[in-house]
Amino acid sequence: MEERMQTIKCRKNRKVQIGIIPGHFATTHSHVNNYVAMTAIKTGLKMAKEAAAELGSTYSSTHIDTIICLEGTEILGAFLAEYLSQGGINSGADITVITPEFNSGNQMIFRDNTQKKIWGKQVLVLISSASTGKSIGRAIECLQYYNGQLVAIAAIFSAIKESHGMPVHALFTEDDLPHYENYLPGECPMCKAGQKVDALVNSFGYSKL
Predict the structure, then answer these.
(1) 3-class SS of residue 183
(2) Of 87, 147, 186, 198, which alpha carbon lies 20 to 30 A from 119's?
(3) What is residue 145's three-state secondary structure?
(4) DSSP 63
């Protein structure tokens, strides 16, 4: 599949890049016609730092106490916290970076020792990819349960512009991927046309079928 990959550069910072592989892919919530490869941003020091600066520039006047990292964005979240603490309203702040746990019912939870980092705090939710907004919705429900205040949503790639009345600020959007489409599994035209699924996709990557 990698031989089909195309590189897309961030419009505002050409050092930040993702890969696009066309095909038929199944995610937890939908079927998509392009796999968005974000490994370099999620794992590489240099690109994660560049991506964090690009995201962080949006929040210079937004007070943030805690960053909740979803879908393997912990490295990006740490650099984002560092960037935010260097200037603006968060200058000098010790911003918390945490990741939720999933219980046996696949619900997001936080243990007693981390709940105090959410309760009454101003929270930014950071996610790698938002195709339908369902993962963001689950995070917001979790945040509300622990009495956190959502003040920002950031993503590497987002096919949606807002969730629960909050804008989603993303490094890459559908404008960068004009041919990106996602469908409910029962409404997927690729399935109806008999096109086999190339791979199963989740936040860790893909597994070929």
Answers:
(1) strand
(2) 87
(3) helix
(4) -
